[in-house]
Amino acid sequence: MNKQIILTASFLGLIAVILGAFGAHGLEGKISDYHLGTWKTANQYHFYHVFALLFLSTFSRAKSPSIRVSFIAFTIGILLFSGSLYLLSVRSLLGIEGWGFLGPVTPLGGLCFMVGWVGLFVAAVKHRA
């Protein structure tokens, strides 16, 4: 599990760096300041939860269901929360203005983040140092 978490965090971290650079250098002047701010929010939460995944990997000997729940919830949260915000930011460039379902996806990702943090809390309470 530890290796799986680190590999996932590494991959998602790479994607966060690429998307952050793209937002800073490739989108300026192409989307509104509002949408650029949304992109930056997506990227911040993306990074925060990559770090959360890396922290989960420190529970290397804990075979707890809470760690598994946190791992899955943080990963899905990044995909849903940050992914939907990334797409909402550039939907006019992609021609997907009609994708109204993206708005409600964002809070589902946020809920996944919350579940992940609760799972981490439970794992920390149960983990013996």
Automatic annotation (TrEMBL):
Domain of life of the source: Bacteria
Matching Pfam families: DUF423
Key words, A-Z: Membrane, Transmembrane, Transmembrane helix
InterPro entries cross-referenced by the UniProt entry: DUF423
Key word Glycoprotein present: no
GO cellular component, one term: plasma membrane
Membrane topology qualifier: Multi-pass membrane protein
Keyword Transmembrane: yes
Transmembrane segments: 45-62, 69-88, 108-125
Signal peptide: none
Compartment(s): Membrane
Family: Belongs to the UPF0382 family.
Protein's recorded name: Uncharacterized membrane protein YgdD (TMEM256/DUF423 family)
